[in-house]
Amino acid sequence: MTAPGVTRLSHTKADLAEARAALPGRVAVVPTMGALHNGHRTLIERAKEIADAVIVTVFVNPLQFRPNEDLDKYPRTLDADLAMCEAEGVDLVFAPSVIEMYPDGRDGLTTVHAGPDGEILEGASRPGFFTGVLTVVSKLFHLTRPDAALFGEKDFQQLAMVRRMVRDLDMGIDVVAVATDREPDGLARSSRNVFLSEAERAAALAIPRAVEAAQASPDPLAAAQKTLAAEPGLDVDYVVVRATDLGEAPAQGPARLLIAAKAGTTRLIDNAPVVVGHTAIGDAR
C-alpha cells in the first residue's frame, strides 16, 4: 500500500492501465465526482481496511446532469482532492477529462439502463439520472478492475442501483456500503453544502431533524412529514418510507426513510433506517 505523499495521478486510460497493472493484491475503488470532503475520507479509510491498494476516481460525469442542473458550477477542486488522497495513502487517482471518457461524444452512446427502480424517487425527479450514473460507474469498473467498490449510504438509491447492476451483469465486484457522514449540526455531508447561505443552511437542518423524528416514531413517515412541513424555507421534493430494497414499505418492521428537498437552489438528499410500528433505533447523527 502506498505511503502518504506518493499517490500516482493518471489522466488517461492508457496511463491508468499501466498503473493498475502494478497494484498489488486486492484492489478497492472509491468512485467520486471530486470536491472531496470528510465523507469521502471515511470511504477511503474503509477501503484501506479491506484492500491492499486503493484507487480514487475523480470525474464530474455530464451524463447524470440535466440541462437545467448544476454541471457547470459543480465544484472542481482537483489539487485539494489529490492532497487529501496523498494524505490518506491512496495509491492511484484517476481523473480523466470528458473527452477521455467519451471520445466519440455522448450522442448515440451505448448506456446502461437502470430499469424500473431507476425511475422512482431520484429517477422520477431527474429523468435519465441513473442511466448516467450506471453508465459511468460501469466504465470506471471496467477501467479500474476493482475487487471491491465503496459507496456512501447517503446516496442510498444509487447504492441500490449499483448493487443491482453488479449482480445482474455478473461483474463480480464486492459493493461495500459506508454509513452517511454528517457534519456537527447533523446535515449529511455533500459537496453541494458549500452553496448554502446561512439562512438556507438553517432551513436545511430540518432534514436531519426529520430523520431523528422518524427514527423515534412508530409512524416514521408521518413524523418526518410533520417536521419538514414546519420549515417554510425548505421545498420538499419527496419524503417516503420504502422497504430496505426500495420496494413498497412494509406494514411493520425495518424500512428506509428517504428525503429530497431544496434549500434555495441547492438540492439535498438524506435517508436513514427506520422501523415501522416500533420506536427508536438511534440518533441520525
Write a short abstract of this structure.
With 285 residues, the protein is of the alpha/beta class. 34% of the residues lie in helices and 21% in strands. Helix 7 links the parallel strand 5 (148-152) and strand 6.
Topology:
Elements: E1 8-10, H1 13-21, E2 27-32, H2 38-50, E3 53-58, H3 78-87, E4 92-94, H4 98-101, H5 122-125, H6 129-144, E5 148-152, H7 156-168, E6 174-178, H8 198-204, H9 206-215, H10 220-229, E7 234-242, E8 253-263, E9 266-276
Parallel strand pairs: 1-4, 2-3, 2-5, 3-4, 5-6
Antiparallel strand pairs: 7-8, 8-9
Helix pairs in contact: 6-7, 9-10
Pfam family, one: Pantoate_ligase
Keywords: ATP-binding, Cytoplasm, Ligase, Nucleotide-binding, Pantothenate biosynthesis
InterPro entries: Cyt_trans-like, Pantoate_ligase, Pantoate_ligase_C, Rossmann-like_a/b/a_fold
Annotation keywords:
285 residues, alpha/beta, 10 helices, ligase activity, Pantoate_ligase_C, EC 6.3.2.1, ATP-binding
